[in-house]
Amino acid sequence: MCYSIIGFGAVGQALARAFARKNIDVTVASRRPPEALAAQARGIGAAVIPATLQDAVKADTLFLAVPYWEHRAVSKILASWRGKTLIDVTNAFGVPVDDLDGLGSSVVVAKAFPDAAFVKGFNHLPAAVLAADPDVQGGHRVVFLSSDDEAAVKPVATLAERLGFAPIWLGKLNEGGSLVQARGRSWAPLIFQDLVKPR
């Protein structure tokens, strides 16, 4: 199994730190060329490997950590995303509700990747908290997962546990998943909730 993070801003780097902490190789890519990411990647750890977007999308499991509307450009890199697991880490705060046709933001993203095993997750924590060691206060920091494909959740939950987090499945995107999706200029109830699941 190979992993990549698409987007290397604050959230992408926070995710990269989680992989580096466990010495799990992860490819990172953004609109910038790999050499522009090299210094930051080295500073995080040897497990973080800069690549082009075209190479990064070859991974089995991808974290989509780009500004919200950039998901459309990423979706066009491959003709089909069949066989890929896509973890949507985007947030649509500030995106007008009318631009989403009344849908949840993750439903819109999922439509752009119709062949992928699609899971919303890792998006409710601020980057600084996401980057911190999730082994805290006698337990593990919680990450929420939601998907319309229950089978897609299990491998993502397993990865979350490998990274030291405690995954909690919220259900479908428009049900429990709506608790971690911004709407207009309103944050959903579970966003920024830094919860710890006891061991």
Automatic annotation (TrEMBL):
Any one GO CC term of the record = plasma membrane
Q: Does the keyword Oxidoreductase apply?
A: yes
Which biological processes are named by the entry's GO terms?
copper ion import
Q: Which SUPFAM superfamilies match?
A: NAD(P)-binding Rossmann-fold domains
The Pyrroline-5-carboxylate reductase catalytic N-terminal domain covers 5-91
Key words of the record? Oxidoreductase
Q: Which Pfam families match?
A: F420_oxidored
Q: Name one GO molecular function term.
A: ferric-chelate reductase (NADPH) activity
Highest taxon, organism lineage: Bacteria
**Name this protein carries in UniProt:** NADP oxidoreductase coenzyme
Species of the source? Dyella monticola
